């Protein structure tokens, strides 16, 4: 199986939605050549707003949108995806939490429990 890249992922999702390249490029406000170069991994993409537009046009769910941002970060040799950078920079407590987790050696299991607790809180608040 080929390695999943930003370009291959966008192409896959666009084809699943049966959206022609030209139509998607028009919706995004970019040229079809630029989009083609992105899909062929000849160009990278960093703008979070364009990535959000792509997620919207492709009707991506939350997990698929996160993967889109992660693939975009990897294509630019960036360690943290654009959607997370702003959030981390705007919230001192997040940086503190990340450093604390690093310092205490938080495992994947600890992080998974933390995520589950956040989802429980989210469900309670939505009731």
Briefly characterize the structure.
With 127 residues, the protein is mainly α. Helix content is 72%, strand content 0%.
Which features would summarize this protein structure in a list?
single chain; 127 residues; mainly alpha; 434 Repressor (Amino-terminal Domain); 2 domains; 72% helix
Helix content: over 70%
In angstroms, what is the radius of gyration?
A: 17 Å
CATH level-two architecture of the largest domain: Orthogonal Bundle
Quaternary class: single chain
End-to-end separation: 43 Å
Strand percentage: under 5%
CATH class of the largest domain: Mainly Alpha
Number of strands: 0
User: What is the CATH topology descriptor of the largest domain?
Assistant: 434 Repressor (Amino-terminal Domain)
- CATH homolog superfamily of the largest domain: lambda repressor-like DNA-binding domains
Summed over residues and divided by their number, the pLDDT gives a mean of 89
**How many H/I helical runs?**
8
How many domains? 2
Write down the secondary-structure element order: HHHHHHHH
Descriptive account of the structure:
With 127 residues, the chain is mainly alpha-helical. It has 2 domains: 81 residues, lambda repressor-like DNA-binding domains (434 Repressor (Amino-terminal Domain), Orthogonal Bundle), CATH 1.10.260.40; 36 residues. Helix content is 72%, strand content 0%. It is built from 8 helices and no strands. The longest helix is centred in the last third of the chain and has 19 residues. It is elongated, with a radius of gyration of 17 Å. The N and C termini lie far apart (43 Å). The model has no long low-confidence stretch (mean pLDDT 89).
